[in-house]
Design a protein that fits this description.
- The protein is mainly alpha-helical.
- Among the domains are: 34-187 and 241-255, no CATH class; 196-240, no CATH class; 258-367, no CATH class; 424-440 and 450-552 and 569-647, no CATH class; 661-695 and 720-823; 995-1009 and 1025-1108, no CATH class.
- It is built from 49 helices and seven strands.
- Residues 1-29 are annotated as: Disordered.
- Residues 139-176 form the SWIM-type domain.
- This is Zinc finger SWIM domain-containing protein 4.
- Keywords: Metal-binding, Zinc, Zinc-finger.
């Protein structure tokens, strides 16, 4: 659709015209307008000026002037629409970035001057102050217009944007507000027709002289063509006049910069990863809707331009090539694009040829390989609205339906718009619904046909097409500026839904016993209305709420850009023909009907995420509505119907295992109903706690290995949003627990529901924490019932995670002890006594027993001496049991805890001794032995050290063994105890340690001082022991033998780069050899043996001779 031409050819009228300067004089205030002005207004709105000239052979000049005068747009609404992202009356608050605001400021500051209107052309100058230190800037603006629409604009600022610049806005507003002050001239051709030849020549020459650098070549070319008799210019009657308005055949629409729109969309799509880009594209979609609402043909035009750029997005081909899905932001934009096209194609006032051209374009786009497909398994020919509905198909029929959907044709995002092309508005019943608020059987009798047209109360119904399609009609009427008609159709659809629900309840009551015995049901709605591509519930709710909204006097151009988004205010607006009902109540009813519908979760991550997002958007709308007594009654009635809805309701007694959970909706209902009907609120919320897809994943009585694995092996679509749904379930449970504080009846009911329906340990733990926090406020006594429930949930988490350890277990155990402490000593002792089913031995011994007996815990409990001793005894018993079960990790904590009780300490020590015989490792034995020494029990430390040495083995090359320090400590301990203990440990050292440097180190340490001189021993010898006498002579022999064996071992595979290390090793060996009386001789013999055995290693032997001779 091309923009209207800025000029057209006009004939040169002959003869003078009558002039009547007073014909368009301004009428005084309160006086009726002149008939000339009234007529000129109507003509200026709908007739091209060329049509006026052709219709009447002679149009008086005053009449021409009034037509020209009234042809400029008279409302600022359109100017604002084309210069901002939304409409606001000029007296409201403005955003300085918006061209409309800037233009208004320029107008009010007197920046507009030299305004002249010549025919259908307006021009003027705009003076704008520059920045600091910059001169004033002057912009020349020209505007062409026709039939109250601006058809082209030009400004010296060269500002390229989607919207008119501020200078165009300033000039347009000046013309609207100060129309009488604008100098008005007829089209220039009218002025030229009044000139004689001399005047025309003078006019042309002056014009060329004034602009000779720009127009001289063009003037000469035109003169040459005119002087050529057979030229094309002489064959055309008249001449073009840019001020004469558009021709009859020219399209009449507002100026729209197509190239700039395409460039802007392309740029925004290339920045699609940024939040701002998505927001700006959504603003452009809003602009399309605004144009549609004003019935501006540019709405469809702009949408076509945007769609073409969307389809040229290079990411589409890349995603298709990689087999990857598009980003969520991009997917949402495509959804909005498809929904907008449904509104455009379904337009109730478009011409058939317009709709045909749109459908042709959509058909072409639909066949493109890169065209995105519609997400989810929603059907295109779903069931029509009917007054009666069957409960559900049998399993075989259901499988056939699923197969039919699976094998269906390819559906793109434009599929529903193409389908809308076959819909029409000519149905007689539909026309009567739209035409009257009081349409009933008495007005027209009975409409012929099989389907009923009114409900038993005589209110009109709308049957025969799917519910989403019917709601798309409502959205279309609203989008195209027919709000009253949209409300009438919405009312008929709601009447139909009510009648359908009534029949559903009746059919359920007849089959209720059978369904309850089965315990589950087939799905009654294979596709839901919330999250549907056409968003039927959202369309109805927005249409109804819009009728009830209290509009403020001023609206922001950017509604979301203010520092605080103001909450919408609504009022009850009565429904004509339905006494006692209001559109606000209907909106609430429809939203709850859609949110509470039992429906299958769609396939695919995005479609499932869209269900969640749509629910949240609907509930956000409802939360804006302040509930009065009238709306509370609606809530109570709808909640009751949801509970009784059977398989048609997500709150019904029987559920399909793949149905969408009701947690989010239930939380809203619970919060809203709680102050007015607590019993109903709890019953509804408890019913909604179910998550059947997890319940049926495990046979009854079998443990749940991992709740998140429940979906992987079944034949149903994967639940990508399961984690989100479980979180919402947890939030609902938390809301009930918090609200039920102080009410044991409901607290226990909520606890039972949580234990039955929530399977995620992390979420159960969060619930337990929340309950504990709520139960123990800082400024009030604790709620013992709620504390007990928190503890019970914590115990359940412990049992669930006992065999599947997580990194949060330590946190959970500490919290559980803290919670039990808040309840009292008996709760703390109970978890100690039943630790086997809750904790690992390590957790019980190191966290439960220790934390339960700290000074802070005992102070918190404020126990008397007997009760304190009882708690200590329980903790010691726990520690001993843990030590028996896991001595390796729990023996030392048990000893530590039992220090103050001799009998318990002896029992713990005996457990360690028994464990040593049963394979307790040397590292743990050394640790306990060091503890014993630290506690002043050196003999017991020595005993444990010898048991550890008996298990130890250090090879010849393990001089960095982790037990080296422990061995040296044990040797030091035995030396400090005396000669007897040292003599006993030497054989153990010789048997366990084969590392020569380590043996020589021990030997040297023992020869430095006399045994029994340490702080823990008694003096039993006067001087140090000699290495050549018992018991150290055995250790010396072992060290010498170890050096000899190690030397031979190292020489077997030695490389030249290790020769230096080996020579140093021999030096250490010589020092040990020399401790013996004949050590020098032994070392010489050892070296000679090496020289003979390894004489082939000449370089090494040379180094040996150099060092040792």
């Amino acid at each position: 659709m091309d923009p209207p031409a800025a000029k057209r050819s006009r004939g040169c009228p002959a003869g003078p015209e009558e002039r009547d300067a007073g014909a368009g004089a301004v009428r005084g205030r309160g006086r009726p307008e002149a008939l000339l002005d009234l007529s000129a207004k109507r003509v200026a709105e709908s007739w091209a000026f060329e049509q006026v000239e052709e219709r009447f052979s002679r149009v008086p000049e005053p009449v021409q002037k009034r037509i020209v005068f009234w042809s400029f747009p008279r409302s600022e609404r359109e100017i604002c629409m084309y210069s901002s992202l939304g409409y606001q009356p000029p007296e409201g608050e403005h955003d300085a970035r918006v061209p409309f605001t800037r233009g208004l400021h320029l107008l009010q500051s007197g920046a507009v001057d030299r305004v002249l209107q010549v025919g259908f052309h307006l021009s003027g100058n705009i003076r704008e102050l520059g920045g600091p230190g910059e001169p004033e800037r002057l912009y020349h603006v020209s505007i062409s217009f026709d039939r109250c629409k601006i058809t082209s604009v030009s400004c010296g600022c060269d500002n390229r944007d989607l919207f008119y610049c501020a200078h165009v806005v300033a000039l347009s507003l000046y013309r609207i507000r100060h129309a009488r002050q604008v100098e008005l001239r007829l089209p220039i051709s009218e002025t030229l027709s009044q000139m004689n030849r001399d005047q025309l020549q003078k006019f042309v020459q002056y014009l060329i002289s004034a602009h000779h650098t720009e127009v001289l070549p063009t003037a000469q070319r035109l003169a040459d063509e005119i002087l050529l008799l057979g030229s094309e210019i002489n064959l055309v009657h008249g001449a073009p006049d840019p001020t004469a308005g558009a021709g009859i055949e020219d399209a009449n629409c507002w100026h729209l910069d197509e190239e700039q729109i395409q460039e802007q969309v392309k740029q925004l799509l290339s920045n699609g990863g940024y939040y701002g880009a998505s927001q700006q594209l959504r603003s452009m979609f809003c602009k399309v809707r605004e144009m549609l609402r004003m019935r501006d043909s540019n709405g469809a035009r702009m949408l076509i331009l945007m769609t073409e750029q969307f389809l040229q997005d290079p990411r589409l081909a890349l995603w298709r090539q990689q087999g990857a899905g598009m980003t969520d932001k991009c997917r949402q934009l495509w959804d909005e694009l498809g929904a907008l096209w449904v509104c455009v194609v379904l337009s109730p006032h478009c011409k058939p040829e317009e709709r045909a051209s749109w459908l042709q374009l959509l058909g072409k786009w639909d066949k493109l390989d890169v065209c995105p497909l519609e997400e989810g398994n929603y059907s295109f020919d779903g069931p029509s609205l009917q007054p009666t509905v069957a409960i559900s198909p049998g399993p075989e029929e259901e499988e056939e339906e699923e197969e039919a959907v699976a094998t269906g044709s390819r559906h793109t995002v434009f599929g529903r718009a193409l389908q809308a092309g076959s819909l029409h508005w000519s149905d007689a019943h539909l026309q009567r619904i739209l035409a009257s608020d009081s349409y009933g059987p008495s007005l027209t009798g009975t409409i012929s046909g099989e389907k009923p047209t009114f409900d038993p109360q005589g209110r009109p119904l709308w049957l025969g097409e799917p519910f989403p399609t019917a709601c798309a009609r409502v959205d279309t009427l609203r989008a195209h500026g027919y709000p009253r008609q949209a409300l009438r159709l919405a009312g008929a659809i709601i009447n139909t839904l009510r009648l359908q629900r009534r029949h559903q309840l009746e059919s359920y009551k007849q089959q209720k016993k059978e369904l309850l015995q089965k315990g589950n049901t087939c799905i009654t709605n294979t596709e839901g209305w919330v999250g549907h591509p056409l968003d039927p519930i959202g369309c109805l709710c927005r249409a109804l709420l819009e009728a009830c909204r209290l509009e403020e006097e001023t609206l922001a151009l950017y509604p979301d850009s203010g520092p605080e988004k103001r909450k919408a205010a609504y009022q009850h607006v009565p429904v004509p023909g339905s006494p006692g009902e209001s559109y606000l109540a209907l909106a609430l009813e429809v939203a709850l009907l859609g949110l509470g519908q039992q429906r299958a979760l769609p396939e695919g991550l995005y479609a499932q995420d869209k269900v969640v997002r749509s629910e949240e958007q609907l509930l956000a709308l409802l939360e804006e509505v302040e509930l009065d007594e009238r709306l509370v009654q609606v809530l109570r009635k709808q909640a009751g119907l949801l509970l009784e809805g059977g398989p048609f309701s997500g709150f019904g007694e029987v559920l399909f295992r793949e149905s969408v959970p009701m947690h989010t909706c239930a939380r809203y209902l619970f919060t809203a109903l709680l102050p007015h009907d607590p019993d109903l609120a709890y019953r509804l919320a408890l019913r909604a706690m179910r998550l059947p897809v997890l319940e049926t994943a495990f046979p009854a009585g079998e443990p749940h290995p991992n709740p998140l694995d429940s979906i992987m092996s079944n034949r149903f679509p994967r639940w990508f949003i399961l984690g989100h749904l479980e979180t919402r379930q947890c939030e609902l449970a938390s809301a009930m627990l918090t609200a039920a504080k102080g009410d044991p009846k409901w607290l226990h009911a909520v606890l039972g529901s949580i234990q039955q329906n929530i399977h995620s340990p992390a979420l159960l733990f969060k619930l337990a924490q929340d309950a504990c926090k709520t139960a123990t406020p800082a400024s009030a006594p604790p709620d013992t019932t709620l504390l007990g429930i928190a503890l019970e949930l914590g115990l359940q988490v412990m049992r669930m995670t006992l065999n599947t350890m997580t990194w949060r277990r330590r946190e959970m155990v500490r919290w559980l002890v803290s919670c039990a402490t808040e309840i009292g000593p008996q709760a703390l002792m109970n978890i100690m006594q039943n630790w086997y089913s809750l904790f690992t031995p390590v957790e019980a011994a190191t966290i439960v027993a220790v934390t339960g007996t700290t000074h802070a815990t005992l102070s918190r409990l404020q126990l008397d001496a007997p009760r304190r001793e009882e708690l200590w005894a329980c903790a010691r018993t726990l520690a001993l049991q843990c030590a028996m079960k896991d001595p390796q990790n729990c023996a030392l904590p048990a000893l530590t805890l039992c220090e103050k009780n001799h009998a318990a300490f002896e029992a713990a020590y005996q457990i360690v001794l028994d464990a040593a015989a049963g394979g307790l490792g040397h590292a743990h034995l050394f640790t306990v032995a060091r503890y014993m020494e630290h506690r002043g029990l050196p003999l017991r430390a020595y005993k444990l050290a010898t048991l550890a040495l008996a298990q130890l083995s250090i090879a010849f090359n393990q001089d960095s063994h982790p037990a080296v320090n422990d061995v040296l400590w044990a040797c030091s301990l035995s030396h400090s105890l005396g000669r007897h203990e040292l003599s006993a440990i030497v054989p153990l050292i010789i048997r366990s340690i084969h590392c020569a440097p380590m043996l020589s180190d021990i030997l040297r340490r023992w020869t430095l001082s006399a045994p029994g001189l340490g702080p823990l021993g008694a003096r039993r010898a006067a001087k140090p022991l000699g290495a050549d006498r018992a018991p150290l002579c055995q250790l010396l022999d072992a060290a010498v033998a170890a050096y000899i064996a190690t030397s031979h071992s190292r020489l077997t595979h030695i490389s030249p780069r290790h020769y230096g290390d080996f020579i140093e090793f021999l030096g250490q060996a010589r020092e040990t050899f020399l401790l013996a009386p004949d050590g020098h001789l032994q070392f010489a013999q050892f070296l000679e043996n090496l020289k003979q055995t390894y004489k082939g290693k000449k370089k090494l032997m040379l180094l040996v001779r150099e060092r040792f001779g």
